[in-house]
């Protein structure tokens, strides 16, 4: 029924797109300007410069009018040649989709990971990467691709360990990292961690609507780009980087999203990137406290790599997680993330990213707790209380007073 309008606010608690702050919505509504005029150049230079601080890089960051998937493709077609072997690690659904893309582009992905579903419950095992690269004496593997925050599971991966694994065997493969759901939510350092291409998107930590994809590019990636021969046109870094020198694009850029990006950069600078990370960490902790108090397993089995962005909530055997999500949506106007791929129906995902705070988290947890009971799932209905207690008791540790 298209006329049905549920009362109150919609709680968009999926792990991206995240709720867009009013300030950004207003920026999106500014009049579109001439993308070849002087005013635009100033905006272009500002966002192209400002975004580097978020990636923690001094290298160029290309901004595409695309979703994150486009930025995945851009990383591959700009640096590789048909038939190249790429080593990709299975952390979950998004790692799997990136692997399928590599196949469709004529690359030869080798997909490694723990056995079966275990890989969907742990982060990247860097020693497996080292082992595979050590055996590659001929250096056939041209790139290693990993997802920093696997959005389908709520598991992060240790990128420093992956870099160390590559260096430990003196392998020349490039390192590509997907930060689509971690950028501006979890600590990430393109330069310091020695990443060659960082892929990202606008609709998660940056709080923008979908529609911007990013590639942060190291000198080594640029050197590979000069020789790479996979077909590319729209994604080609060369004409974009040339036009970007003066703040422009070789085609019509998404002007209004760039207004919002400029505003988001201001908001993040105002809060301080480290404070943004601490806020996510704290909300993630409180969410996990609730899930454990309910009596459910967290999808991530390794506490060292719990995601600060989202929590995967595993339903007991025989409970359809999609049914639970549906009940919660219908009763409370609250959207949660579905289990994807191998996790379909087994779990749901609570997003706690972007423009979120204690009260948005508590709304989500309360909605879950009530919905679980309505759906008839055996649950210890003390999760929301436990999360509040945790928020209170952990406040000083985060430099807050509650
Ligand atoms: N990679 C990760 C880790 C993601 O979370 C997503 C989307 O949720 C993607 C890739 C695909 O990005 P998009 O849906 O913006 O194309």
UniProtKB/TrEMBL annotation:
Transferase found in the keyword field: yes
Domain of life from the UniProt record: Bacteria
Aminotransferase class V domain segment(s): 39-339
Keyword Membrane: no
Parts forming coiled coils: none
Obligatory cofactor(s): pyridoxal 5'-phosphate
Keywords: Aminotransferase, Pyridoxal phosphate, Transferase
Molecular function terms, GO-annotated: transaminase activity
Similarity section: Belongs to the class-V pyridoxal-phosphate-dependent aminotransferase family.
Name assigned to this protein: Aminotransferase class V-fold PLP-dependent enzyme
